[in-house]
Amino acid sequence: MNASDSVLNLVRPDILALSAYRSARKEAKGGRVWLDANENPKTPAASLPSETLAKDGRMNLNRYPEPQPAELVAQLAALYGVAPAQVLVTRGSDEGIDLLLRTFCRAGQDAILITPPTYGMYVVAAGIQGASTVTVPLIRDKNFALDAAAVLVAVLAAPKPSGEGGTPEVKLVFLCSPNNPTGGLLDRAAVLSLVQSLATRAIVVVDEAYVDFSGQPSLAAEISANPNLIILRTLSKAYGLAGARVGTIIADPAVIAVLQKVIAPYPVPSPVLTAALAALAPAGLAAARNSVETLIAERARLAAALAKLPAVKRVWPSDANFLLVEVADAAKAMAAGRAAGVIWRDRSKDAPHSIRITVGTAEENNATLEVLSRPELL
Ligand code: PMP
Predict the structure, then answer these.
(1) What distance in Å separates the CA atoms of residue 151 and residue 168, rounded to the nearest whole number?
(2) Segment 327-373, tens digit of pLDDT
(3) Which of 99, 119, 268 to mutate to test the pocket of ligand 1 (most atoms within 8 A of CB)?
């Protein structure tokens, strides 16, 4: 059995056995008269922006788009330094999380493992799929470090094959690096050793939504040697395309092939494709690099200025585009922000007295500083 096969053993057996839906745009290539997909020959609405009627056909909105547009897949593969066969384009990484749950976890039998405090969608996606959730907290006293040994113990504690003894089998370990809402990167060596220790037992999903702001390399290059590693990336943050919904699952080609069976037939709408290709063209990439540099500089300025305010007790180190900030009174701070029209996220349920502040423009960050410097917040 090769390494990819052992990862496929973790896939829900009914999904492995499923025949994929064959959409029209998957089956046919290179025609002249397209009468295979029950489309309208034209888009009747005249009020659509003129670029929606472009000559290259890409934005012909009357046509279904390519299921996985080859040009976008190639650009994303180049951007992330992986092979096109390791790439699946999704509607944001939120869809990636949901797809992984549905592909690997059997309802009522399997589990995911999360390391709180962390991104809330993992547990929601697990709940929707009927999978349970095992938790192994990050170590707060060590800057919210990963407790890799405890994660390993928790996964190996589950019996195999699953279901026996009534303990769910952990199929997916979700690690978020840099972590939301704490902001720090997880230790690369600790993550990799966990991936290796779990090789045939579980998939390790590393959500790298914020890695562009860390100055550190992605773990994606490690997938070729470790087929049980899956990386999630997104254009929502560093590329400023949250509204376009473009996420990427990077995984072993055998895993990508299975995920293709589960994803909706046309997840990349034509206007989204156009926006994503523009963002990934050389000028778009250069602009994104500038934006990331500016946000990193603003993060440093904001963190230093916040740390001097009497109402701020602690600013956690951040490798992301936000700061987790412990304040004297989170509810008071949130209310003062709201009254001033400045909206942050209350994260006091995740970390005591803490709010999460996104790094914005210099003016926006000044607005944050102005509100949090008010004496009534003490
Ligand atoms: N992962 C993490 C850690 C996030 O914080 C977010 C956005 N809040 C997402 C994934 C989802 O991002 P998107 O669906 O926009 O790609």
Answers:
(1) 15
(2) 999 999 999 999 999 999 999 999 999 999 999 999 999 999 999 99
(3) 119
